[in-house]
Amino acid sequence: MNYNRPKIAIIDPNTLSNIGLKQLIQSVMPIAVIDCFGSMTEFMANHPESYMHYFVAMNIVLENRAFFAEHPRQTIVLTLSLNDSSRLGNFHSLCINVPEQELIRSLLMLNRMGHDKGRNMPPMPPVLSQKVLSNREIEVMSLIVQGYINKEIADKLNIGLATVITHRKNIMEKLGIKSVSALTIYAVTHGYVDINKI
């Protein structure tokens, strides 16, 4: 089976913003190829038609309105304000000036709404879609990403606190994940937790 990996462009002169957003998008869409560009000139020199989406700094969209007006469904404008009046009409917006968990939730919602809950995306390669966690680990993971602390998880599942801590450690090691944010992305994208419960 041929796995066509979708390509995403991030166009923002802020290098640090590019690196962080790239990492978060890669977590939400592990099959995507993500390229970062510091300017519109650099982006235009790299086959812009080959990208499924453009995550673009507001100032670049404003300076190159004609190009992005032709691609409103592909363009996601990066804003610093949650205020609806500061958003550009006809474009999806993503406020990047929010806590990490909120930004992740926004990315997951964009992915879910824009791609019919993932049905419009190419299939995941088998190696990325294999079940690696036990049923109990999945239960523990689900409660972790919903915000429960270890003691509450132990009480809910009627297991010892030390067992919860061991499951938590094993989950992180098996998945190669180091943060609850990354675990949240994994749980939502694999259908273990409804996005509305995080």
Briefly say what this structure is.
This protein has 198 residues and is of the alpha/beta class. Helix content is 47%, strand content 12%. The protein is built from ten helices and five strands, in the order βαβαβααββαααααα.
> Strand arrangement, largest sheet?
2-1-3-4-5
Total E-strand runs: 5
Strand content: 5-15%
**Helical segment tally?**
10
Stretches where pLDDT falls below 50 for ≥5 residues? 115-122, 124-128
Main sheet makeup: 5 strands, parallel
Instruction: Calculate the mean pLDDT score and round it.
Output: 83
CA-to-CA gap between the ends? 34 Å
Helix and strand content put the structural class at alpha/beta
Order of H and E elements: EHEHEHHEEHHHHHH
As a whole number of angstroms, the C-alpha radius of gyration is: 19 Å
| Helix fraction by DSSP (H/I, runs of at least 4) | 40-55%
Shape: elongated
Walk me through what this model shows.
The protein has 198 residues and is an alpha/beta fold. Helix content is 47%, strand content 12%. α1 links the parallel β1 (7-11) and β2 (33-37). α5 packs parallel to α10 (180-189) and α7 packs across α10.
Give the helix/strand layout.
Elements: E1 7-11, H1 15-28, E2 33-37, H2 40-44, E3 53-57, H3 58-63, H4 65-69, E4 75-79, E5 92-95, H5 100-114, H6 126-129, H7 135-145, H8 150-157, H9 161-175, H10 180-189
Parallel strand pairs: 1-2, 1-3, 3-4, 4-5
Helix pairs in contact: 5-10, 7-9, 7-10, 8-9
